[in-house]
Write a structure and sequence with these properties.
Layout: E1 6-10, E2 22-27, E3 45-49, E4 69-74, E5 96-101, E6 107-111, E7 115-119, E8 127-130, H1 131-134, H2 142-158, H3 160-166, H4 172-184, H5 191-216, E9 221-224, E10 231-233
Antiparallel strand pairs: 1-2, 1-3, 2-9, 3-10, 4-5, 4-8, 5-6, 6-7
Length: about 230
């Protein structure tokens, strides 16, 4: 799915009554005049709203960079596999599936039925979280992340049967937590922490899709207080 570029323009007619940073949203290109006051737009602050979706299968060329990716997609209730499960149509009641991504773009994930598998397709529209960035752990490079993934996957496969007897409720998020715990050498990492990281991205998906649909229908959209992690100033 190809998404049009959404631009946010800060203009005085939206901000003179209060101190909020209000932005008018437009699709693809900046209009010559404000859609509200009809005033000429000159030297305005223009920000591109970054798409909340990323291709988890994109490979990483420089593995010395602090990048350790985990990925989330929507999961079909009737399937234990994740292929062809886009996050684009996320709603609050959507079930999610997650995995860890190596530098080649292989997504390693866990299901009760198949254990650990890796996918080279099916995660083209995912939520991607960079653990190194969120935790400010610059020494957690893509190369180190690879080593940790491969080590845990190998250990897991060797002890799979015993592990399932002891932990029959183990799921994909537990697998991701185990990887991050090992990478960070921090036993305080848990499901709640990852859910907190994820919640920001899920809120952005809902807002982004609402803005896009409203713009496509011709409705004027105004948003305020953009979060720096979802914008890029032009």
């Amino acid at each position: 799915m190809t998404h049009s570029n959404i631009l946010a323009i800060k203009h005085s007619c939206f901000n003179h009554e209060n101190n909020h940073e209000n932005y008018i949203c437009v699709m693809n290109k900046t209009p010559e005049k404000c859609l509200k006051c009809n005033g000429t737009l000159e030297n305005e602050m223009i920000i591109q709203l970054l798409s909340p979706y990323s291709n988890a299968h994109q490979s990483i060329l420089f593995t010395s960079y602090p990048l350790s990716r985990i990925a989330f997609i929507s999961s079909d209730n009737n399937s234990n596999t994740s292929n062809n499960s886009s996050i684009v149509h996320y709603q609050p009641n959507t079930n999610l599936h997650c995995g860890v991504v190596d530098s080649e773009g292989k997504v390693y994930h866990y299901t009760n039925q198949y254990g650990i598998q890796y996918d080279t397709i099916g995660w083209e529209q995912s939520i991607i979280i960079n653990v190194s960035e969120l935790t400010k752990c610059d020494n957690l490079t893509s190369f180190k992340w690879n080593e940790i993934i491969y080590s845990i996957v190998n250990d897991f496969k060797q002890s799979y049967h015993n592990r399932m007897i002891q932990h029959d409720d183990y799921d994909c998020l537990d697998f991701v937590v185990d990887i991050i715990k090992y990478a960070m050498d921090d036993q305080q990492v848990n499901r709640i922490l990852i859910a907190q990281w994820l919640s920001i991205q899920l809120e952005w998906i809902i807002l982004y899709e609402d803005i896009r649909k409203q713009l496509e229908s011709g409705t004027l959209q105004v948003i305020s207080k953009l979060h720096h992690s979802v914008t890029c100033q032009l």
